[in-house]
Amino acid sequence: MESVALEATKRSTQERSLKCMECGKTFVHRCNLISKKKSHKVEKPYKCMVCGDSFIHNGHLTSHKRIHAFEKLCSNSNST
């Protein structure tokens, strides 16, 4: 169990030297960068009106909207 945690720590602290020129996100592994580049080419017709993120499927947008609902709930509870 300790070696798994150590390996995860190594990976998280490794320098992310591979950068997507489209969005600026960085990666440790080349295969992840390739997948990210492909994602930029796919049409994403479902757009979040709060943050502008776009999605391939409406269900993904629906799931994403929960983040903003939770953020709003938290900000409302902090202001009382």
UniProtKB/TrEMBL annotation:
Gene3D superfamilies: Classic Zinc Finger. InterPro entries: Znf_C2H2_sf, Znf_C2H2_type. Keywords: Metal-binding, Repeat, Zinc, Zinc-finger. SMART domains: ZnF_C2H2. Pfam families: zf-C2H2 (PF00096). Residues 18-45, 46-73 form the C2H2-type domain. GO terms for molecular function: DNA-binding transcription factor activity, RNA polymerase II-specific; RNA polymerase II cis-regulatory region sequence-specific DNA binding; zinc ion binding. The keyword Zinc-finger applies. This is C2H2-type domain-containing protein. It comes from Naja naja.
